[in-house]
Design brief:
alpha/beta; Spore Coat Polysaccharide Biosynthesis Protein SpsA, Chain A; 2 domains; 8-stranded mixed sheet; 10 helices; elongated; binds uridine-5'-diphosphate; binds magnesium ion; Glycosyltransferase; membrane; transmembrane helix; Nucleotide-diphossugar_trans
């Protein structure tokens, strides 16, 4: 490991991407060439940090071979699968670059575009995120749910979380340092970065199709991720349940007055069980919703209070073994 930190680190989380890696490495070499030609980079100015997130296929072996033979390429091997956001976190924590870029390893994020993101920073931006112009090869379901989710999140938060962006972005050292200091467990990294502030901007790109294989995100994983996003940055759902509670209590009180009136001043007092059932059902429903919301937050508080490390690194592989950390 050279003592001088590189100008740029590129963090790439990978999980079961064995078929994609040779092409990925080829494209990364194109990126390095562009940076050399356009930005006057030397070989030491860039480090590539693959984070192997507990892959079950031969991803580890393939990457280890590359990283042990190519200076500037590092493989951070996690002890098991921790998920996309924590894999990114591990990479960002370890990255030493003056700027840190994050991109997916499935070639949906074109590696060459990192050079454009890097150049854009020169205009005085601390964060340049890549904004998807179009999405190739994504299901209609994913397109619609993503569209709706980003707009809900925007309504719920007080600061700007850019719409239609993933984690494909570049950030300055000072933003990276703040991000590294944020140790929350349920991480919605693009939200955390938006929270940090400074000058941020977007640059449009065309999101490619996956080079090989399928998305690693099931519908339930996506839902969990969406909930992390919302609960990390807004207590609106908590408030929503109390509004709902207040509203139903208000109407309940009105209804009680009405029933009392019937009872005291009229003769048709015996109301069937219908009204009782309605009240019981509505209240029961409201209580369940409120409890569920509280549960969502509580489980996150519970997780956070354990204060565990976010991930465990098995080892870092590079040309000179054990030279990192
Ligand atoms: N990934 C990971 N850990 C996981 C799931 C995915 O490191 O548990 C990696 C994956 O290899 C890819 C990136 O994160 O490089 C994005 O994953 P994917 O393409 O499945 O997500 P999508 O593009 O569908 O949102
Ligand atoms: Mg993908």
């Amino acid at each position: 490991m050279p003592s001088k930190p590189p100008l740029l680190s590129v963090v790439i989380p990978v999980y079961n991407e064995e078929k994609t890696i040779p092409e990925l490495v080829k494209r990364l070499h194109v990126l390095i060439r562009i940076l050399k030609e356009k930005n006057g980079f030397s070989k030491e100015d860039i480090e590539i940090l693959f984070v192997n997130d507990g892959s079950r296929d031969s991803t580890f072996d393939v990457l280890k071979k590359y990283c042990e033979s190519e200076p500037g390429f590092f493989l951070l091997n996690l002890s098991r699968n921790y998920g996309h956001q924590l894999a990114i976190t591990a990479g960002i924590d370890t990255a030493r670059g003056g700027a840190v870029a994050v991109m997916d390893g499935d070639l949906q994020d074109p590696p060459e575009f990192v050079a454009d993101l890097y150049s854009k920073m020169d205009e005085g931006f601390d964060v340049v995120y890549a904004r998807r112009r179009k999405r190739e090869g994504e299901s209609l379901f994913k397109l619609i749910t993503a569209h709706v989710f980003y707009r809900i999140l925007k309504k719920l938060t007080r600061f700007e979380i850019p719409i239609d962006t993933g984690d494909f972005r570049i950030m300055s050292r000072r933003v990276t340092d703040v991000l590294v200091s944020m140790r929350e467990e349920h991480r919605y990294i693009r939200g955390l970065i938006a929270w940090i502030g400074f000058k941020q901007t977007g640059l449009e790109y065309d999101r490619d199709e996956r080079f090989h294989g399928e998305t690693k995100f099931s519908v339930s994983k996506m839902l969990g991720f969406a909930l992390d996003g919302i609960t990390s940055f807004s207590s609106a759902p908590l408030k929503f349940s109390s509004y709902l509670g207040f509203t139903s209590a208000f109407f309940g009180a009105l209804y009680t007055i009405y029933i009392l009136y019937l009872k005291l001043f009229t003769h048709d007092t015996i109301q069937g069980w219908t009204s009782v059932m309605i009240v019981a059902l509505v209240l029961g429903g409201v209580q369940l919703i409120a409890l569920g919301m509280i549960g969502e937050y509580l489980s996150r508080v519970n997780d956070q209070s354990k204060n565990r490390p976010l991930y465990v690194i098995e080892k870092i592989y590079s040309v000179k073994r054990n030279s990192k950390k």
